[in-house]
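Title: Request for sanity check on BLUF domain-containing protein prediction

Description:
We are preparing a figure and want to confirm that the structure record we downloaded matches what your pipeline produces today. Could someone re-run it with the sequence below and paste the raw structure tokens into this thread? We only need the token string, no images.
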Amino acid sequence: MVDSFPYTEAQRRQAVAWAIAVTANTPLAPRRYERYLLEQYQLGLLSLDEMLQLLESSIYQIVYRSQAVHPLSTDALHELLVQSQQYNAHHQITGLLLYSAGRFVQVLEGPEAAVRVLYARIQADTRHWQVVTVGEGPEPVRRFAEWTMGFGQVALPEVASVLAAGPYDPPIPDVNEHHIQTLFRAFGLRPD
């Protein structure tokens, strides 16, 4: 289907530039996947309907970090993981939880409403504090589809390197831990 407006490349570019300018520095500013779709629309490679359909079928993702109030024992971590896997399986959520020396880094992905409800529960959980959203927004596919909740205990410097690295911040630190490598690959931070 051909969009009736804007129908020329110049009009598409102008419409996208306007939308990005109006939403800059607001919660409505386009995220990485949304920017990609907007670029495809600007180039005339996607119609407005196609772009909206891709957004509707996308997976919502939240990445956060937090600090445990008290370090968790191996048994407490295992119990947390089992509860998370059961809840996530029931709500179609997948992801990865990393723990190190009282610090958490977690990726949640799934239907937006379900991910937001879970994240609100996590933010209210009294076992940790300083819950900071590292990133959120739609993604084209699940990055951790095989895990209702993957888990890894990793060294603190490696967790810090994940939090410090961004999608456009080379060089990527040399990390040997499997879960960290998986996280890097999922975000396109490290070649397979």
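Thanks, this matches our download. Helices lie at 9-23, 32-42, 48-56, 74-91, 112-124, 156-164, 178-186.
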